[in-house]
Amino acid sequence: MSLVDLGKKLLEAARAGQDDEVRILMANGAPFTTDWLGTSPLHLSVQFGHFSTTEVLLRAGVSRDARTKVDRTPLHMAASEGHASIVELLLKHGADVNAKDMLQMSALHWAVEHSHRDVAEILLRFGADVHAQSKFCKNALDIALDKGCHELTEILQVAMRNQINTNPDTNPDSLTVHTATPQFIIGPGGVVNLAGLVSPGNASRSAVLTVSDTEVAEETVISDEPIIKRQRVKEEEDNEMSEAHDVQIQQTISLDDFQEKVSLLKQLEEANREAQRYRQQFLKKEQEAEVYRQKLEAITRQSAKKAL
Question: Which pLDDT belongs to residue 77?
Fold first, then answer.
């Protein structure tokens, strides 16, 4: 059996969760190949929820962060399908918890998109970046709010308060107005120093409107809003997902056309070779016929001379 055939069988065994077959194929030298979409045996085993097969492949050295043609890792697939135990297994083997796919979606994005609370909790426990934004400028909390998933919303809000935001575009500090002069608010007893009211611990959670000591505002507000929701772009997201799906369909058609063309070219080459063989045989027969014709004419001439 060729290496190509062994690789194909390994993909099929991983998809079906056949642990023994996977071990036998790898022992016989089956390469860690992918299908035309870049899907590896590990992608298939996690997608279909085969925990033991996933473990066998990871121990054998299959890349835990292998990417498909749309940059999805096995962790993306496991999180999207809600296979919590496999998600934890991948993370324990060092899978990149914050890897992003073609849509800049992390495993946490996909877990929230499909309302897999247990998966989201595991990802957060392993350090998933709750502030990370997708291509559509949405973090995991935005997705949870869009879907109306209250349990996930609460979990993600707590995570956002406890996790340092390394994304400068969404850094909570940018919501606070800083000036060089002392900051004040107007309280019941008059102008009050803001520094005595806002501690460093909750300054990062509050959007503060402030005035300097040389100005008096009619109204000063400390907002308890935990998150300022960004502009919703649901229609754009649907269009992007549709385009990604169309790309996959076009790739499928393109590959089928390519394979068909290759097959036809091979058949054409074989037909040309066969025609060349027939042509050579035909020329040879023509030469033999010419020799026989010349001999026949010679015999005829000799017979005519004798008759005279």
Answer: 96
**Which pLDDT tens digit goes with each residue over 208-249?**
333 333 333 333 333 344 444 444 445 555 656 656 555 555
Answer for the pair 41, 22: CB distance below 8 angstroms, yes or no. yes
- The answer on pLDDT for 166 being more than 90 is no
Model-level pTM?
0.56
Instruction: Give the span between the Cα atoms of 273 and 275, in whole angstroms.
Output: 5
- Residue 96: name the closest of 53, 141, 128 by CA: 128
Task: Give the whole-angstrom CA distance, residue 167 versus residue 100.
Answer: 15
The predicted structure's pLDDT at residue 301: 79
Q: Are 79 and 111 in contact (CB under 8 A)?
A: yes
In whole angstroms, give the CA distance from residue 51 to residue 46: 7
- Spatial neighbors of 21 by CB under 8 A, at least 6 apart, are 9, 13
pLDDT tens profile 277-292: 777 887 888 888 888 8
**Residue found by looking up tokens 């099929």 in the block:** 12
> Does residue 135 contact residue 240 with C-beta atoms inside 8 Å?
yes
CB 211, CB 217: distance < 8 Å? yes
